[in-house]
Design a protein that fits this description.
about 60 residues, alpha/beta, 1 helix
Length: about 60
């Protein structure tokens, strides 16, 4: 069990050609965890397109 005073940092990796449901599905669940921050990371800060062309922008770059 995680102590309630512990703040969780949760993230997902965004990349070109991703199916958006593979990003937004886990986001819907994990972003609801109390006392947690959910961020989306990518190799760069540039927006990428999913397999259907939807443009997605990361919160932060890994590099």
């Amino acid at each position: 069990m995680i102590p309630p005073e512990t703040h969780l940092q949760i993230g997902s990796l965004l990349f070109e050609g991703l199916d958006q449901i593979d990003l937004t599905g886990p986001f819907e669940v994990l972003s609801r965890i109390p006392n947690a921050t959910y961020r989306i990371y990518a190799p760069t800060a540039e927006s990428v397109r999913d397999i259907r062309g939807l443009r997605l922008t990361p919160d932060a770059a890994l590099a």
